[in-house]
Write a structure and sequence with these properties.
Largest interface: A-B, 66 and 59 residues
Helix content of chain A: 40-55%
Largest sheet of chain A: 6 strands, parallel
Structural class of chain B: mainly alpha
Shape of chain A: elongated
Structural class of chain A: alpha/beta
Number of helices of chain B: 11
Number of strands of chain A: 6
Distance between the termini of chain A: 19 Å
CATH architecture of chain A: 3-Layer(aba) Sandwich
CATH topology of chain A: Rossmann fold
Strand content of chain B: under 5%
Oligomer: heterodimer
Strand order of the largest sheet of chain A: 3-2-1-4-5-6
């Protein structure tokens, strides 16, 4: 039997690199499915009455949360189209920059030709430190936790904040961040507010189970592919669709290398068995 | 008993216990006074959390300045980090955190580099899949087959031609996938509670440097 040689890691990395560079230069346009979970988020946002206040809030690091931005950006576009309003609540040090990135990328502000006006249709609050107690404080009484927006403008001078005083004014909490457990616990569990977690693929399995804990209140999308689905529902191709090629390719490569690793191991075992038989004879 | 031991060992512990219990006031009592106390404690908590950011800068600066002065290993990198930190703070306070200029600078440097670091994971995942998912016995078989199955069921080129596999994928996520995840969370939470009680009771000898002071 032929002995399959052990591959050096460098060769595997070159294959992965070539695959990604090729699809980045020449997009494959790999097909993808709109999962039921993505459709459910879309339907829920669609069902909200005009003027409802939606929160984008949570925390962790920008680079890791980038995977969630595909769904979040599509959802912000959806909100603007529906005439909803958005309050951005950063609970992590990088969340202000991340939430600005999502809002800017959605191109919903009037400066980009969109329908939203800052302070009227959406607002960015400053970083709110303190973890879970700060979140509870904010839900109980917004002004006792924060008194100005990110520019330092008093909340009382912002028209949107006149209608946002406590958790009772929130129609939906969207979380495009890794830190979702506190949101499920204090926002959904204790106060009964619906939450949409635009989860990274690695966080999806953890969040998925909360659907059975709080039926009808928890909505989850799955990483880039969930974002691609939301983009398709909104009728445009964004970062999620662009990342789908890489996602499809990576899932194929992982399986190919898994099989190859086992074939290599089996061939080496056979070869050693044959060698042992020859030595015994 | 020295006064330092008394402060570290008993007074600080008493304050922490009182503070933690006070934070639960609004959960158990419905009164304006309880709400006011809860609000005040939360504001203190927020201030302390914010102060930890400064503690981080002070700690890093103290260590780096010492290393730079002594010209120890990697001192040029630490000098570079110190200069960058100071410049970044000046820039942030001058142009504002929500300005397009700050956003562009932030995206072009820190975020791009961080994404590059995270992007490397896919390379290690591929070489890891080649070496780790080798079926040598029952345990490795469950490990490898479980991972490969989830990977395949989430892959677009499987999900589209075989939509009838969707319920199986969802079952894997919500049952075998979720159960151990919850187990780990419950175990971690019980462990955290037990550790907290031990710290408050002074059974953890390292807590609040009681033993060190004594």
């Amino acid at each position: 039997m032929v002995k399959v040689p052990e591959l050096k890691s460098q060769y595997i990395w070159i294959v992965v690199l070539i695959a990604f560079v090729t699809t980045a230069v020449t997009p494959l346009g790999a097909p993808f499915k709109i999962f039921d979970t993505t459709q459910e988020v879309y339907n829920f946002v669609e069902s909200l009455p005009k003027g409802s206040i939606v929160v984008m809030g949570g925390s962790t690091v920008f680079a890791f949360d980038l995977e969630s931005s595909a769904s979040m950006i599509a959802c912000i576009k959806h909100m603007a189209r529906k005439g909803l309003r958005l309050v951005n609540i950063p609970l992590g040090v990088e969340s202000v920059q991340y939430q600005k990135y999502c809002t800017d990328a959605a191109r919903v502000d009037q400066k980009y030709g969109g329908p939203w006006k800052y302070g009227v249709d959406y607002v960015q609050l400053p970083y709110i430190p303190g973890g879970d107690p700060a979140l509870v404080q904010l839900l109980t009484d917004v002004r006792s936790a924060v008194s100005v927006d990110v520019y330092g403008t008093s909340l009382d001078q912002l028209p949107i904040m006149k209608d946002f005083r406590s958790y009772k004014n929130i129609a939906l909490w969207t979380c495009p961040h890794w830190g979702i457990t506190s949101i499920f616990r204090f926002v959904t569990g204790e106060r009964g507010i619906a939450t949409a977690h635009f989860a990274q693929a690695a966080a999806y399995t953890g969040s998925y189970g909360y659907r059975t804990v709080f039926p009808g209140l928890v909505y989850v999308t799955n990483g880039w592919i969930g974002g691609a689905g939301y983009e398709k529902l909104m009728g445009y191709a964004g970062v999620g669709t662009a990342a789908n090629d890489g996602y499809a390719l990576a899932s194929a490569l992982l399986l190919i290398f898994t099989v190859l690793g086992n074939v290599t191991m089996l061939s080496q075992m056979r070869k050693e068995e044959e060698k042992e038989k020859v030595e015994v004879k | 008993m020295s006064s330092l031991t008394y402060v570290r060992g008993y007074l600080v512990r008493l304050l922490i216990i009182t503070g933690c219990l006070s934070a639960l006031i609004s959960w158990y009592f419905v009164s304006p006074q309880a709400d006011t106390a809860f609000t005040e404690l939360n504001i203190m908590n927020m201030n302390i959390s914010l102060f930890t950011l400064f503690v981080g800068i002070i700690t890093i600066s103290a260590r780096y300045i010492r290393t730079i002065k002594a010209r120890e290993k990697y001192w040029p990198y630490q000098l570079y980090a110190m200069v960058l930190m100071i410049l970044w703070v000046i820039m942030g306070t001058t142009v504002g955190l929500f300005s397009d200029f700050y956003q562009t600078a932030y995206l072009s440097t820190k975020i791009t580099l961080h994404i590059a670091i995270l992007g490397q994971i896919v390379f290690f995942m591929a070489s890891g899949a080649y070496r780790v998912f080798r079926i040598r016995n029952l345990r490795t078989a469950i490990f490898a087959i479980g991972a490969a199955t989830l990977c395949a069921l989430n892959a677009p080129w499987i999900a589209i031609p075989f939509p009838q596999l969707d319920p199986f994928r969802e079952w894997l996520l919500s049952h075998p996938g979720m159960a151990p995840g919850r187990g780990i969370m419950i175990a971690g939470a019980i462990g955290a509670c037990a550790l907290g009680i031990r710290v408050f009771l002074g059974l953890e000898k390292g807590a609040l440097r009681v033993t060190e002071a004594a």
